[in-house]
UniProtKB/TrEMBL annotation:
It comes from Nonomuraea jabiensis. The keyword Nucleotidyltransferase does not apply. Keywords: FAD, Flavoprotein, Oxidoreductase. Its cofactor is FAD. InterPro entries: AcylCo_DH-like_C (IPR036250), AcylCo_DH/oxidase_C (IPR009075), AcylCoA_DH/ox_N (IPR013786), AcylCoA_DH/ox_N_sf (IPR037069), AcylCoA_DH/oxidase_NM_dom_sf (IPR009100). Belongs to the acyl-CoA dehydrogenase family. One of its GO terms (molecular function) is flavin adenine dinucleotide binding. Residues 19-79 form the Acyl-CoA dehydrogenase/oxidase N-terminal domain. Residues 184-309 form the Acyl-CoA dehydrogenase/oxidase C-terminal domain. This is Alkylation response protein AidB-like acyl-CoA dehydrogenase.
Amino acid sequence: MALPDELRAVVRDYLADRPDAPWQAFARDVGIAGLLVPEEHGGAGCGPAEMAAVGEELGRALSPHPFLQTAVMAVEALRASGAYDLLPALVGGATTATVVPPGEGTLRLESGLLTGVVPYVPAGELALVYVDGLLVAAVPARRRTYRTMDESRPLQELSFQDTPARRLGDGSSWPRVRDLGIAALAAEQVGGAQRCLEMAVEHAKRRRQFGRPIGSFQAIKHKLADLLLLVESARSAAGAAAADGVYAAIAGSYCTEAYLAAAGENIQVHGGIGITWEHPAHRYLKRATSDAQLFGPPQAHRARLAAHALG
C-alpha cells in the first residue's frame, strides 16, 4: 500500500474514534501538523500526495482542525522565508497559525509595528501577514471568533494595535502559498463531495417508493451517475493542483462547483429528510458554500485561467 493510502486510513480511523480531539492531540498522535515540514526540522517531509490524502479525509469528516491554514499555508510561508525556528511550535501542535493575504483588511506596517484589522481569516494564534510587500509574523492583540453559517471552519477577526511584527522576508512567496492552499482546499472539497455521493447512494438503496428502491428509478440513476463523474473529475483536478498556478486555478474552479453540486444533489435525493436539522446533509452544503468563497468564487479562478490562456 502506498504511503498516501496508509496515511488516509490512519486519519480516517482517528477522526472516527476521536472526532472531538483537539488539534494538539491530533498533531501529537498522527503527526499531521508537520506533514509538509522537512525531516531535518522535525516534520514528516511529505509532499502534495500525502497532503491531498489528509485533506480528503478532513473534508469527508467536516473536521474543524486548522490543517489548511496551519499545516499547509503557514508552513509553506515559513519554509519559503527560511524562518525555520518558528516551525517546531507548529509541528508539535502547540501553536496554530493563519496566513493573511496581501491587501486584506486595513493593515499598515510602520517601524516594525503592525496596526489595523483583518475582518475575516481562518482561525489561528500566530498571524503570518503579507503587508506592504513584506511577510511578517505577529500575535494579534485581539481575536474575535464569528458564529458563522459553517461552524466547521472557524473564522476570526484579527486586531493589531502597534503590535510588534517580526520581518520574515519579502512577499514574493504569496502566490505559491495561495496555490498550495487552493490545492489543499480542493482535496477537502473532494472528500466532502465523495461523502455526499456515498450518502446519496446509501439512501437510494434503502429508501423505497412504489415497492422498489428509489435507486432503481432512471432519474435517480442518472443523477448519481452524473455525481460520480463530477467527484472523480474533481479528484483528478485536485491531484494536480499543487503542480503550479494554472492547475490550482483549474481545481479552484472545478472542485468548488463539484462540491456544491454534490451537496445540493445529496439533499435532493434524500428528499424531506435531507433538509432537517438532524440529518448531516445540510452541514455539507454549508461547508461547500463557505469553501466557495475562501479563495474567491469559481469565477475568480476562471479569470486567472483566462489571463493565462489569452496572455
